[in-house]
Protein backbone atom coordinates (compact mmCIF):
# COMPACT_ATOMS: atom_id res chain seq x y z
CA UNK A 1 0.00 0.00 0.00
CA UNK A 2 1.29 3.43 -0.97
CA UNK A 3 1.23 6.06 1.77
CA UNK A 4 1.23 9.77 1.09
CA UNK A 5 3.80 12.23 2.42
CA UNK A 6 1.14 13.60 4.74
CA UNK A 7 0.37 10.16 6.17
CA UNK A 8 4.10 9.50 6.62
CA UNK A 9 4.53 12.84 8.39
CA UNK A 10 1.59 12.11 10.67
CA UNK A 11 2.95 8.66 11.48
CA UNK A 12 6.31 10.21 12.32
CA UNK A 13 4.70 12.80 14.59
CA UNK A 14 2.67 10.08 16.35
CA UNK A 15 5.85 8.09 16.88
CA UNK A 16 7.60 11.16 18.30
CA UNK A 17 4.69 11.75 20.70
CA UNK A 18 4.78 8.12 21.84
CA UNK A 19 8.51 8.46 22.50
CA UNK A 20 7.79 11.54 24.62
CA UNK A 21 9.04 14.12 22.13
CA UNK A 22 6.25 16.61 22.59
CA UNK A 23 7.87 19.92 21.71
CA UNK A 24 10.77 21.47 19.83
CA UNK A 25 13.12 23.33 22.14
CA UNK A 26 15.98 23.96 19.73
CA UNK A 27 16.21 24.58 16.00
CA UNK A 28 18.34 21.43 15.65
CA UNK A 29 17.65 18.04 17.20
CA UNK A 30 20.05 16.97 19.96
CA UNK A 31 21.99 13.79 19.16
CA UNK A 32 21.14 11.76 22.27
CA UNK A 33 23.13 8.77 21.02
CA UNK A 34 26.36 10.72 21.31
CA UNK A 35 25.85 10.96 25.10
CA UNK A 36 27.98 8.14 26.43
CA UNK A 37 29.80 7.70 29.71
CA UNK A 38 33.14 7.81 27.93
CA UNK A 39 32.44 10.68 25.58
CA UNK A 40 30.54 13.49 27.26
CA UNK A 41 29.90 16.84 25.67
CA UNK A 42 33.17 18.73 26.04
CA UNK A 43 33.07 21.71 28.33
CA UNK A 44 33.72 24.85 26.38
CA UNK A 45 34.69 26.99 29.28
CA UNK A 46 38.24 27.49 30.50
CA UNK A 47 38.54 29.50 33.64
CA UNK A 48 40.80 30.07 36.59
CA UNK A 49 39.27 29.15 39.89
CA UNK A 50 40.02 29.90 43.47
CA UNK A 51 39.33 26.92 45.72
CA UNK A 52 40.00 27.75 49.36
CA UNK A 53 41.27 24.71 51.24
CA UNK A 54 40.07 24.28 54.82
CA UNK A 55 41.94 26.54 57.27
CA UNK A 56 43.94 28.06 54.48
CA UNK A 57 44.14 31.84 54.40
CA UNK A 58 45.27 32.42 50.83
CA UNK A 59 43.19 30.66 48.17
CA UNK A 60 45.08 28.62 45.55
CA UNK A 61 44.24 29.16 41.93
CA UNK A 62 43.99 26.21 39.58
CA UNK A 63 43.30 26.38 35.85
CA UNK A 64 40.56 24.18 34.44
CA UNK A 65 41.86 23.30 31.01
CA UNK A 66 39.92 22.07 27.99
CA UNK A 67 41.88 18.78 28.08
CA UNK A 68 40.58 18.14 31.56
CA UNK A 69 37.07 18.10 30.28
CA UNK A 70 37.45 15.31 27.73
CA UNK A 71 36.07 12.60 29.97
CA UNK A 72 33.24 12.14 32.38
CA UNK A 73 35.54 12.14 35.37
CA UNK A 74 36.95 15.39 34.15
CA UNK A 75 33.47 16.86 33.78
CA UNK A 76 32.74 15.91 37.38
CA UNK A 77 36.10 17.27 38.51
CA UNK A 78 35.43 20.51 36.65
CA UNK A 79 32.02 20.79 38.32
CA UNK A 80 33.67 20.22 41.71
CA UNK A 81 36.21 22.97 41.13
CA UNK A 82 33.70 25.42 39.77
CA UNK A 83 31.20 24.76 42.56
CA UNK A 84 33.81 24.95 45.32
CA UNK A 85 35.00 28.30 44.02
CA UNK A 86 31.55 29.86 44.39
CA UNK A 87 31.35 31.85 47.59
CA UNK A 88 27.81 33.14 47.19
CA UNK A 89 24.50 31.75 46.03
CA UNK A 90 24.50 34.25 43.16
CA UNK A 91 27.93 33.07 41.98
CA UNK A 92 26.73 29.47 42.14
CA UNK A 93 23.61 30.21 40.13
CA UNK A 94 25.68 31.95 37.46
CA UNK A 95 28.16 29.05 37.43
CA UNK A 96 25.40 26.47 36.95
CA UNK A 97 23.86 28.49 34.14
CA UNK A 98 27.16 28.74 32.28
CA UNK A 99 28.28 25.14 32.94
CA UNK A 100 28.49 23.05 29.75
CA UNK A 101 29.56 19.72 31.27
CA UNK A 102 26.14 18.11 31.73
CA UNK A 103 24.87 16.48 28.52
CA UNK A 104 21.27 17.24 29.45
CA UNK A 105 21.87 20.92 28.81
CA UNK A 106 21.98 20.60 25.03
CA UNK A 107 18.44 19.21 24.93
CA UNK A 108 16.90 21.71 27.33
CA UNK A 109 15.45 25.14 26.76
CA UNK A 110 16.33 26.61 30.16
CA UNK A 111 18.49 25.95 33.17
CA UNK A 112 16.24 25.20 36.14
CA UNK A 113 18.17 25.90 39.34
CA UNK A 114 16.02 26.91 42.31
CA UNK A 115 12.88 28.67 43.36
CA UNK A 116 12.07 30.09 46.76
CA UNK A 117 13.92 31.70 49.61
CA UNK A 118 17.68 31.30 49.68
CA UNK A 119 18.68 30.81 53.30
CA UNK A 120 15.35 29.23 54.31
CA UNK A 121 15.62 26.50 56.93
CA UNK A 122 13.89 24.02 54.60
CA UNK A 123 15.34 22.87 51.29
CA UNK A 124 13.31 20.50 49.08
CA UNK A 125 15.28 18.50 46.51
CA UNK A 126 13.38 16.77 43.72
CA UNK A 127 14.36 14.81 40.67
CA UNK A 128 14.50 16.79 37.45
CA UNK A 129 12.70 19.56 35.60
CA UNK A 130 9.82 18.49 33.37
CA UNK A 131 8.26 20.24 30.42
CA UNK A 132 6.63 23.09 32.38
CA UNK A 133 9.76 23.70 34.44
CA UNK A 134 11.94 23.71 31.33
CA UNK A 135 9.66 26.27 29.72
CA UNK A 136 9.60 28.55 32.77
CA UNK A 137 13.13 27.98 34.13
CA UNK A 138 11.72 27.21 37.60
CA UNK A 139 11.44 23.92 39.49
CA UNK A 140 8.17 22.24 40.46
CA UNK A 141 5.60 24.40 38.73
CA UNK A 142 3.61 21.73 36.85
CA UNK A 143 0.94 19.48 38.39
CA UNK A 144 3.41 17.74 40.68
CA UNK A 145 4.75 21.12 41.75
CA UNK A 146 1.27 22.34 42.57
CA UNK A 147 0.73 19.29 44.77
CA UNK A 148 4.10 19.93 46.39
CA UNK A 149 2.98 23.49 47.16
CA UNK A 150 -0.19 22.15 48.80
CA UNK A 151 1.80 19.61 50.81
CA UNK A 152 4.14 22.31 52.04
CA UNK A 153 1.29 24.70 52.78
CA UNK A 154 -0.21 22.05 55.08
CA UNK A 155 2.76 22.58 57.40
CA UNK A 156 2.94 26.35 56.99
CA UNK A 157 5.58 26.37 54.28
CA UNK A 158 5.63 28.35 51.04
CA UNK A 159 8.29 29.03 48.48
CA UNK A 160 7.65 32.76 48.80
CA UNK A 161 8.31 32.81 52.54
CA UNK A 162 10.31 29.99 54.06
CA UNK A 163 11.28 27.22 51.64
CA UNK A 164 13.85 26.73 48.88
CA UNK A 165 13.25 24.17 46.11
CA UNK A 166 15.69 22.55 43.72
CA UNK A 167 16.48 19.26 41.93
CA UNK A 168 19.37 16.82 41.52
CA UNK A 169 19.80 17.89 37.88
CA UNK A 170 19.21 21.32 36.42
CA UNK A 171 18.10 20.49 32.91
CA UNK A 172 15.11 18.54 31.65
CA UNK A 173 15.95 14.96 30.64
CA UNK A 174 14.66 14.03 27.17
CA UNK A 175 11.14 12.59 27.22
CA UNK A 176 11.11 13.12 31.00
CA UNK A 177 13.14 9.99 31.61
CA UNK A 178 14.99 9.56 34.90
CA UNK A 179 18.37 11.29 35.01
CA UNK A 180 21.24 8.85 34.58
CA UNK A 181 23.94 8.31 37.25
CA UNK A 182 26.35 10.22 35.00
CA UNK A 183 24.05 13.22 34.79
CA UNK A 184 23.40 13.29 38.52
CA UNK A 185 27.10 12.84 39.30
CA UNK A 186 28.01 15.83 37.14
CA UNK A 187 25.40 18.02 38.85
CA UNK A 188 26.10 16.75 42.38
CA UNK A 189 28.90 19.23 43.20
CA UNK A 190 26.48 22.06 42.50
CA UNK A 191 23.81 20.47 44.68
CA UNK A 192 26.35 20.10 47.49
CA UNK A 193 27.42 23.70 47.14
CA UNK A 194 23.79 24.82 47.11
CA UNK A 195 23.33 23.03 50.43
CA UNK A 196 26.49 24.60 51.84
CA UNK A 197 25.63 28.14 50.73
CA UNK A 198 21.90 28.14 51.46
CA UNK A 199 22.43 26.56 54.92
CA UNK A 200 19.13 24.66 55.34
CA UNK A 201 18.46 23.08 58.72
CA UNK A 202 16.60 20.24 57.09
CA UNK A 203 16.31 18.76 53.58
CA UNK A 204 13.18 17.07 52.25
CA UNK A 205 14.14 14.53 49.58
CA UNK A 206 11.24 14.13 47.16
CA UNK A 207 11.34 10.73 45.49
CA UNK A 208 13.50 7.72 44.78
CA UNK A 209 15.85 9.32 42.25
CA UNK A 210 17.13 12.04 44.62
CA UNK A 211 17.27 9.46 47.41
CA UNK A 212 19.61 7.35 45.29
CA UNK A 213 21.64 10.30 44.01
CA UNK A 214 22.07 12.04 47.37
CA UNK A 215 22.26 9.16 49.85
CA UNK A 216 23.12 6.20 47.62
CA UNK A 217 20.02 4.34 48.84
CA UNK A 218 17.55 2.53 46.59
CA UNK A 219 13.94 1.91 47.52
CA UNK A 220 11.88 4.95 48.50
CA UNK A 221 9.14 2.66 49.89
CA UNK A 222 11.36 1.48 52.73
CA UNK A 223 13.53 4.59 53.07
CA UNK A 224 10.75 7.19 53.31
CA UNK A 225 10.01 8.65 56.70
CA UNK A 226 13.44 7.74 58.09
CA UNK A 227 15.78 10.60 59.00
CA UNK A 228 19.33 10.34 57.69
CA UNK A 229 22.24 12.74 57.37
CA UNK A 230 23.70 13.95 54.12
CA UNK A 231 27.34 15.02 54.09
CA UNK A 232 28.40 17.49 51.42
CA UNK A 233 31.78 17.92 49.74
CA UNK A 234 33.10 20.25 52.45
CA UNK A 235 31.86 18.07 55.32
CA UNK A 236 28.64 19.96 56.06
CA UNK A 237 26.09 17.58 57.58
CA UNK A 238 22.36 18.16 57.25
CA UNK A 239 19.44 15.96 58.38
CA UNK A 240 17.34 14.74 55.47
CA UNK A 241 13.91 13.15 55.28
CA UNK A 242 12.98 11.15 52.17
CA UNK A 243 9.33 11.09 51.15
CA UNK A 244 7.28 10.19 48.10
CA UNK A 245 7.57 12.36 45.04
CA UNK A 246 4.38 14.38 44.43
CA UNK A 247 4.15 12.96 40.89
CA UNK A 248 3.98 9.49 42.45
CA UNK A 249 1.25 10.70 44.80
CA UNK A 250 -0.76 11.98 41.84
CA UNK A 251 -0.68 8.47 40.41
CA UNK A 252 -1.02 6.65 43.76
CA UNK A 253 -3.17 8.82 46.07
CA UNK A 254 -3.13 6.03 48.67
CA UNK A 255 0.47 7.03 49.39
CA UNK A 256 -0.68 10.43 50.67
CA UNK A 257 -1.36 9.04 54.15
CA UNK A 258 2.31 8.13 54.58
CA UNK A 259 3.46 11.36 52.93
CA UNK A 260 1.30 13.23 55.45
CA UNK A 261 3.05 11.40 58.29
CA UNK A 262 6.40 12.42 56.77
CA UNK A 263 5.30 16.05 56.63
CA UNK A 264 4.34 15.94 60.31
CA UNK A 265 7.78 14.58 61.14
CA UNK A 266 9.33 17.35 59.04
CA UNK A 267 7.28 20.05 60.80
CA UNK A 268 8.31 18.68 64.22
CA UNK A 269 11.96 18.71 63.27
CA UNK A 270 11.77 22.25 61.93
CA UNK A 271 10.15 23.36 65.20
CA UNK A 272 13.21 22.09 67.10
CA UNK A 273 15.51 24.44 65.20
N1 LIG B 1 9.49 16.95 39.30
C1 LIG B 1 10.66 17.18 39.90
O1 LIG B 1 11.23 16.30 40.52
N2 LIG B 1 11.18 18.40 39.81
C2 LIG B 1 10.59 19.38 39.16
O2 LIG B 1 11.13 20.47 39.13
C3 LIG B 1 9.35 19.13 38.54
C4 LIG B 1 8.82 17.91 38.62
Automatic annotation (TrEMBL):
Q: What class of enzyme is it?
A: hydrolase
EC number(s) on file: 3.2.2.27
Which InterPro entries does the annotation name?
UDG_Type-4/5 (IPR051536), Ura-DNA_glyco_family4 (IPR005273), Uracil-DNA_glycosylase-like (IPR005122), Uracil-DNA_glycosylase-like_sf (IPR036895)
Record-linked SUPFAM superfamilies: Uracil-DNA glycosylase-like (SSF52141)
Q: Which CDD domains match?
A: UDG-F4_TTUDGA_SPO1dp_like
Uracil-DNA glycosylase-like domain residues are 113-264
Gene Ontology molecular function, alphabetical: uracil DNA N-glycosylase activity
| Sorted UniProt keywords | 4Fe-4S, DNA damage, DNA repair, Glycosidase, Hydrolase, Iron, Iron-sulfur, Metal-binding
Q: Which reaction does it catalyse?
A: Hydrolyzes single-stranded DNA or mismatched double-stranded DNA and polynucleotides, releasing free uracil
Q: Which family does it belong to?
A: Belongs to the uracil-DNA glycosylase (UDG) superfamily. Type 4 (UDGa) family.
Q: What is this protein called?
A: Type-4 uracil-DNA glycosylase
